[in-house]
Amino acid sequence: APRQFRRPYIYNYIKKYGKKPSELRGYKIVYLPLNLEPEHSLLLFSPEFNNSMELIAWVSKSLPADFLLVVKEQPFSYGMRSKHYYDNLRRIGNVVLAYPSITSWEWINSADLVTTITGTSGIEAVYFEKPVLSFGKHQAINCLPTVHYINSFDSTKEAICELMAIPENDKLFKVSKEALYQAQINSSFELLG
Length: 193
Known about the structure:
- The protein has about 190 residues and is α/β, with parallel strands linked by helices.
- About 45% of the residues lie in helices and about 15% in strands.
- The chain has 8 helices and 6 strands.
- The radius of gyration is 17 Å and the shape is globular.
């Protein structure tokens, strides 16, 4: 019951403090969509790392001065995390909350880098030809040249530097996109109805 009461309050809180891509001009954006916590897929596919606050701390400490980490709440999580959680995020100088109605695709398109533990945002980022920091050890995208798997604070900073050194229209992004597409097609089947 407390979650149901907190849900509209937290949504309005994030709406009040959330930013839109147009408000962040002049900054490079690292996009992080939060997972539902606890979540079966998060615990199943990333038992080694499933702490969003630790991920945020590692990334924010590793970013150059002209970068912002945009954190978007998972729509089903409104009311699950406390206001204190978001207050702590807002206290970090280079972390901002994403405005709730801005879609993940809009953020990925605006981002210079996408960060994920598990979920579709990493896959979507590959299709948008964006570099990806992957904190999930068992994601298939970790094999792609524009995705770096992260397993420590030190590897976070190194991966950010390496990924940001890839030029925007580099052929590696097309190679990653094509490899992911072919892997999905080759492992798919026709669903007869």
